[in-house]
Amino acid sequence: MDMNAPFFDFGLFGEGTSFIVAFFVGIGFGFFLERAGFGSARKLAAQFYFTDLTVFKVMFTAVVTALLGLFWLSWIGFLDLSRVNLLPSYPLPQAVGGLIFGIGFVAGGYCPGTACVASSTGKLDGFVHLLGMTTGILLFGEVFPYLINFYDSTALGEVTLGDAIGVPSNIMVFVIVVFAVLGFVAAGRIEDRSAKKLTGEP
Q1: At what angle do helices 112-120 and 15-35 cross, to 10 degrees?
Q2: 154: CB partners within 8 A, 6+ apart
Q3: Does residue 8 fall inside a structural domain?
Q4: Residue 89 phi/psi, 5° resolution?
Q5: What is the tens place of the pLDDT at every residue in 106-120?
Q6: CA atoms of 82 and 103, how far apart (whole Å)
Q7: Is 176 inside a domain boundary?
Q8: For residue 5, is it within any domain?
Q9: Which residues, listed in sequence order, are joined to residue 5 by a DSSP beta bridge?
Q10: 4 Cβ contact list (under 8 Å, min separation 6)
Q11: Looking at the 3D structure of the chain, how many domains does it have?
């Protein structure tokens, strides 16, 4: 089978069409986030209290679905993985950024995407979170010249997790899928235990 994807790289559509596709994909993504209840800060924050792990399960499902889709489409020769854009890895600054992001998530109950979803349905806390996020972006832009050395530290380039730890991609895919299955089982048991505590069941 001849390589056909990524569609943009192989000239199946141009830049204008790609923006239109991205626009409708974004609308669909936001719609399904709202339908899954991710426009509620209470539901999102509940994962940190181990009472509702829907966020974990939905996001892990999305990751595994994308992972398996990319792997099998590449394996049958439809997708050229070498043309799939990877963001460069900077473990230390990304870890610090992830920690700051996590603190904001716990404190506000929203991530950037879900804050947009909440705002689109008129939730005031969603607008407040968006305002805080925008303020943080502007402040980061102002102090960036002082952080640039840290920002560019521990650069690994465009690498996958398998590349970084020296594990073949097919083995890495299998390991992640196994972790996903175990994570789903563990999440179900944690939710059941939390529900029993709330209802006073033994």
Answers
A1: 80
A2: 90, 91, 92, 93
A3: no
A4: -100, 130
A5: 888 898 889 999 998
A6: 35
A7: yes
A8: no
A9: 79
A10: 10, 12, 78, 79
A11: 1
Whether 40 contacts 110, CB under 8 Å:
no
Q: Are 80 and 74 in contact (CB under 8 A)?
A: yes
Residue 157 in 3-state DSSP? strand
Sign of the dihedral defined by the CA atoms of residues 112, 114, 120, 121, in that order:
negative
What distance in Å separates the CA atoms of residue 38 and residue 54, rounded to the nearest whole number?
Answer: 9
For 39-51, write each residue's pLDDT tens digit. Answer: 888 888 888 888 8
When pLDDT is cut at 50, 70 and 90, the band that residue 1 belongs to is low
Strand partners, 89: 157
Residue listed under structure tokens 């590349």 = 163
DSSP 81: G
Q: DSSP character for 5?
A: B
The pair phi, psi for residue 79, each rounded to 5°, is -115, 130
Euclidean distance between CA atoms 26 and 167, whole angstroms: 33
Residue range 175-200, pLDDT digits in tens: 999 999 999 999 989 988 887 776 66
Q: Output the six-digit token pair for 107.
A: 């404190």
Give the domain extent around 48: 15-199
Asked whether residue 73 is assigned to any structural domain, the reply reads yes
